[in-house]
Amino acid sequence: MPTLEEEISRRRTFAIISHPDAGKTTLTEKFLLYGGAIAQAGEVKGKRAKAATSDWMEIEKQRGISVTSSVMQFQHNGFCINILDTPGHQDFSEDTYRTLMAADSAVMVIDGAKGVEPQTRKLFKVCALRHIPIFTFINKMDRETRDPLELCEEVERELGIDTYAVNWPIGCGKEFAGVYDREKQRILFFSGETRGKKVNSMEVALEDPTLDETLGTEKAAKLRDEVELLGAGRDFDMQAVRNGTLSPVFFGSALTTFGVEPFLEEFLRMTTAPLPRVSDQGEVDVFSPDFSAFVFKIQANMNKAHRDRLAFMRICSGKFERDTEYYHVQSGKKLRLSQPQTMMAAEREIVEEAYAGDIIGVFDPGLFAIGDTITVPGKKFRYSGIPTFEPEHFMRVSPKDTMKRKQFIKGTEQIAQEGAIQIFKIPGAGLEEVIVGVVGTLQFDVFEYRMKNEYNVDLRMTSLPYDHLRLIESMDCHPDEIVLCTGAAVLQDFRDRYLLAFDGEWSVGFLTKHNPGLVLADTLSV
Ligand code: GDP
């Protein structure tokens, strides 16, 4: 029987981030194949069949329980690896960001032909906030790609992180010969589909003349030049990787499984066991026998017959055992977590035990909120909260039937409490008309659907032009007197703080110029 320390030490929990179509699903699938967690390639994909965004129930049915982010676990070389998936553009939501709070590192998949794309940038920003290690996989080398040096430079320039290429591609597309492993001084040869086949490799120093025979003079010369250029640059620094300031870069082709295994091996070598999390009583020892966890996501059950919700928590210390009594710090209540489950690719499984680093989903009788802490009875510390992320889409919302005022207020407040949407007040107006802000537009559909089905309220919804929201830190006039440009408005949150919603970064210039006493908070979190 492995000890608690051994079980925890072998855990790695990472989020996989990318812009849609870069190859995140394909890479995840290949990871799972290595772990034997799924029998055949295609299973992850099948679950994600594209659905019309308007049909929420259909989305639920097709994708199983997790319409937003899901968790997958697999074993490889003695490690137990948890992958947190971050959903694509259609179902992008605050949950996507919150999922990143549960990871200890991130794998960023970049399409070699496209480079850094908008969604990569957004997700990266949140990872960078947490200073977690970020590994870059530059994918689709079997296709024509951009120049690899240019790609690395783009990552550095656009994302503000240093890079260190662990391996270097030899050509791309039809000319793709493989990669050169800089440390091991070894070429891994590309030969189409690699899964199940052993990848041919050859140990060869760059200056060795056999390199010319093997690759041809032209390719060999190019490889020497490029690797020399890299060598003149930055040294590898493990501490910088762990601090999240240096991203190890790997080139490969997920579709043909080329480069996936070396990537996984280096990833496991460079990452550590789950890192301690900070609570209001200081850092909590991951290896302590006492279980503790925080809730990072709550998902309402769309099945009307079961009003329960599912709360996802990241275990931060100790061991979780089913049917044991735990303690919910925020409510002060003792509880047993019923039907705890993990997700193995397409299936859900009831778990009997889980360890620090793991993610479990439990039925929530309406007790939990995002950021809550669960511990063992007697321990009352709280993990630091999960930030709220700046919404990018806004709608003015009111009930179609003014007689439904009460249900409307109850519904909007409850759904906002779950963290599915953010609601704001229009200063001076009543609660029968509010502004709803979301990170991804699918959240509007979900909100509308749930208001109708759970609260029996049809909504009148009007799109608003804002795409930014900042907390007003200070102002030297009454909020009514703020000089606004078109496409800007003053809102209020439920703690009665004032915020400014506006359209485009340029409005900030206008607003600050015309309101010299106005200071806006410069942060993602509101
Ligand atoms: P996701 O949206 O990031 O999850 O991307 P997918 O994994 O669904 O991949 C998007 C498309 O790119 C699919 O058609 C994949 O088959 C294809 N793809 C993924 N990886 C590679 C690769 O290494 N080479 C090539 N040629 N195509 C790839």
Model description:
The protein has 526 residues and is an alpha+beta fold. The chain is 26% helix and 29% strand. The chain is built from 14 helices and 31 strands. The strands form 8 sheets. A 7-stranded mixed beta sheet has the order 2-3-1-4-5-11-6, sandwiched between helices. Strand 17 and strand 18 form a beta hairpin. The longest helix is centred in the middle third of the chain and has 15 residues. The radius of gyration is 25 Å and the shape is globular. The relative contact order is 0.11. Bound molecules: guanosine-5'-diphosphate (GDP). The site of guanosine-5'-diphosphate has 16 residues, from helix 2.
In short:
The chain is α+β, with helices and mostly antiparallel strands and 526 residues long. 26% of the residues lie in helices and 29% in strands.
Main features:
526 residues; alpha+beta; seven-stranded mixed beta sheet; 14 helices; 31 strands; 26% helix; 29% strand; binds guanosine-5'-diphosphate; Peptide chain release factor 3; cytoplasm
Give the tally of β-strands. Answer: 31
Gap between N and C termini, in Å? 46 Å
**Oligomeric state as shown:** single chain
Q: What is the radius of gyration computed over CA atoms, rounded to a whole number of angstroms?
A: 25 Å
Return the average pLDDT rounded to an integer: 86
Helix content: 25-40%
Classify the beta-strand content into a percent band.
25-35%
What profile does the largest beta sheet have? 7 strands, mixed
Tell me the overall shape: globular
Uncertain runs are: 39-69
Physical arrangement of strands within the biggest beta sheet: 2-3-1-4-5-11-6
The tally of helices reads 14
Which molecules are bound in this entry?
Answer: guanosine-5'-diphosphate
What structural class is derived from the secondary structure elements?
Answer: alpha+beta
Binding site for GTP: 18-25, 85-89, 139-142
Domain Tr-type G: 9-275
Keywords: Cytoplasm, GTP-binding, Nucleotide-binding, Protein biosynthesis
Subcellular location: Cytoplasm
